[in-house]
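Dear support,

Our group has been running a series of protein-ligand predictions, and this particular one with zinc ion is the one our PI (initials K.S.) wants archived with full inputs and outputs. We had some confusion internally about which version of the output was final, so please treat the block below as the authoritative record. The input we submitted was:
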Amino acid sequence: MKIEISHSRPAETKADLLALPVFEGELPAAPKGAKRASDPLAELDRALGGDLSRAIADEQFRGGAEATLTLHTGGRLPFGRLVLLGLGKRERYQTEGLRHAAAAAVKAAGRASAKRLALPLPGAADEPLEARAAAEGALLGAYRFDRWRSEKPKRPSGPTTLILGAGSPKHEPLGEAIALAERLAEAVAWARDLVNEPAGQLTPRRLADEAQRMARAHGLRAELLGPTAIRRLRMGMFLGVAQGSAEEPRLVRVSWEPRGAAARERPLAIVGKAITFDSGGLSLKSSENMMDMKSDMAGAAAALGAMRVIAHLRPPFPVHAFLGACENMPGGRAYKLGDVLVSRRGKTVEITNTDAEGRLVLGDVLAYAAETKPAALVDLATLTGACIVALGRWTAGAFSPNDALAEEILAAARAAGEDVWRLPMTEWVKETLKSDVADLRNSGERPGGAIAAAHFLSEFVGETPWLHLDIAGPSFLARERGYLPKGGTGMGVRTLVEWVRGRAIAKGS
Ligand code: BES
Ligand code: MN
Ligand code: ZN
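Confirmed final output from the archive:
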């Protein structure tokens, strides 16, 4: 999808479909008292001989968030179809609403096989931010995973050209905002593809190869280590999980390394959970609970997607992404209940549930990442069902003992339009991880399960400022919502990029 900027008035924009964002209560047919019946709407209504206000009244369209109204213009305007996109009340407007509206516009264009989609920006927030949100929503909303369908869908998933209607050309140039949106959308789509790819295809080795291929294409460094090297690193927890599978594990590091003095700055480190399939191991999941477990590497996909954008931001400090990729499988070689694993840091762990595998792999990889002495360390993991129970399907949980880092990540998520909510690391929950035979056990009790998992991870990061994002819910959806598709969503890519971007800007680059 090509993105263009237009400064024409909506009623004079040449396109196949014009999608006009409107605020609730600001429509021509709205009850008296609602004053701001904005000009573009009035002009469109006049050109349509009052058909627009009649349709608004007939359909009782009020412009509520995510509501739409479609009209054929019958040749009376330079576009064949007009779609009104409800944004909800002006007072509650955030650019995130525009992302969803843009996705609705793109889907309407796809259904109508409209090639040129015009989308005037509402002009109710900072214009580059609106342009970026609209472009992101449009590009992300057009995503489709149809690799494994022999018959591709007949209708396109969106238009070939998106024309963003901006204010006067005097205003800020929007090219940079749109270029960032395009980079982000490409990276998110790639992360979604990795998550959606069946586990039989995307094995740990394949995931590592994909990481390496991406790194080469974008000027990053990649390092892939196999079982022998992982053994040499004494990652007993990682190896314990990996040993039940016929597929070899891989430890992957992808790095942005700036030249000159910046190379000696403290790095940022990202760790992504990379279980390419989680059967539960000997604590086997039910079929129902196992069904979507190809998505248990969504944290890794987010980390890699973010690195792909970071490569082009060129921050003035190194950024490393680490993945411990393996499968969690039952079988003759699988790790057993009651086993004691010795972690890289030396702590011993009694296995009380082989389905609590993510924290084991992450523990060793976090310890390894912390050895690079990062200024901050963030991990993303589809870690617990308990986090979905706590926050619902659409919100990620953030855990950190470090208030400053938590504020920083929450602000980045808000700016990026991703839903993240901080959860506490209640001290008492840690007690549930006490073991009679080893330093720790890997699973406690059901209450506070997401908190216990965060406490487990915290045992392996030492003094490094660290934050854990549990993305079990929002990384993989059972049904689509706005620009978020069914299946892999790429959750985390945008927050990570915003975080690194913020740090780069703060350093004056
Ligand atoms: N990968 C799962 C968590 C998960 C569940 C992700 C549902 C996405 C959707 C994780 O490895 C797991 O199995 N966690 C257990 C932990 C328990 C055994 C302590 C869980 O949440 O039940
Ligand atoms: Mn599991
Ligand atoms: Zn898992």
